[in-house]
Write a structure and sequence with these properties.
46% helix, Isopropylmalate Dehydrogenase, 5-stranded mixed β-sheet, phosphate:acyl-[acyl carrier protein] acyltransferase activity, alpha/beta, 11 helices, 7-stranded mixed β-sheet, 2 domains, 12 strands
Length: 329
């Protein structure tokens, strides 16, 4: 399998991308990792002993985080993100990964690869950690700020297939993000979506409140991109603030430092269980090719996780399964 990596996109690019590619190449020799970017920058970072399954695809332009997405994709046709997307379209790569501009990656998916038949709005589907270590797939988390009930139905169907194919969950449960668990709760969108999801060929378990997502009340949580992105950022901010507060309190006195030393292994396990690096790699479901979004602040560990998840999706035929599901719709 061949994975194109946008080596210039992300807060820690290109070092994180190169380091993760080298680590992944050693662990999965059957995978061809293609670093897309400026050769004059990437070549020195690779060092003298480059694995045979790591190559460079030249791309002299970079889409920045503050670039207007559609304009950047059209004007920077030789950017690392666009070239990686073109490789997928042309069949020279089975998937692409980028930690760069989310809007631009959405534009690459839509303008270069196009939507799958039967899909109106592709959705970004990251994994949330859960207290039981299983995780919850959430979509849409920001690809589309506005949605119709039919879009949420499509997210539910795509999320179900993803959990079945990539994570091996038989009959995954699907919940609808809402302000309460009662069927009558919510706005016009969630009320209409509830009726569609209830009739769909999925294991729908009803409305789920945001506070219950980490408790794994469902395998797939469905929402519009506006609400989903707010929930995602709120969880990230809360986790970061809690760990910062704990660190401050545990270092505040000699006694607390002694306690911190004793409890350090426990705190590390908690941190690891809630670490987004272990869940990095959100597929853009609904486009005609496998496009995976890494967190903007992805380090080498997080990028390698994204590579691992991408390999699994390729190996289990995710795009073929989605195509078959929606071909007649």
């Amino acid at each position: 399998m061949r994975i194109a990596i946008d080596a210039m996109g992300g807060d820690h690019a290109p070092h994180a991308q190169v380091e993760s590619a080298l680590a992944a190449a050693a662990e999965w020799p059957d995978t061809q990792l293609i670093l897309v970017g400026k050769p004059e920058i990437l070549t020195p970072l690779l060092g003298s002993k480059v694995p045979s399954n790591v190559t460079i695809e030249p791309a002299e332009e970079v889409i920045e985080n503050d670039d207007e997405p559609v304009r950047a994709v059209r004007r920077k046709s030789n950017s690392s993100m666009v070239v990686a997307g073109r490789m997928v379209k042309e069949g020279r790569a089975d998937a692409m990964i980028s930690a760069g501009n989310t809007g631009a990656l959405m534009a690459v998916g839509l303008l270069l690869l196009g939507r799958l038949n039967g899909i109106d709005r592709p959705g970004l589907a990251p994994m949330f950690p859960s207290l039981d270590n299983v995780g919850v797939l959430a979509l849409d988390m920001g690809a589309n700020m506005d949605a119709k009930p039919e879009h949420l139905l499509q997210y539910a169907l795509m999320g179900t297939i993803y959990r079945e194919k990539v994570h091996g969950i038989r009959k995954p449960s699907v919940g609808l993000l809402n302000v309460g668990t009662e069927q009558a709760k919510g706005n016009e969108l969630t009320k209409a979506a509830y009726d569609l999801l209830e009739q769909a060929p999925i294991h729908f378990v009803g409305n789920i409140e945001a506070r219950d997502v980490l408790r794994h009340k469902c395998d797939v949580i469905v929402c519009d991109g506006f609400s989903g992105n707010i929930m995602l950022k709120a969880f990230e901010g809360a986790a970061s603030s809690i760990f910062s507060l704990l660190r401050e309190e545990l270092m505040s006195s000699f006694k607390s430092k002694i306690a911190a030393a004793i409890l350090k292994p426990s705190f590390r396990r908690v941190r690891d269980r809630m670490d987004y690096n272990e869940y990095n790699g959100a597929p853009l479901l609904g486009v005609n090719g496998l496009v995976v979004k890494g967190h903007g602040s992805s380090d080498a560990k997080a990028m390698k996780t994204a590579i691992r998840h991408t390999r699994t999706a390729i190996g289990n035929g995710l795009i073929a399964a989605l195509t078959e599901e929606f071909s007649g719709k």
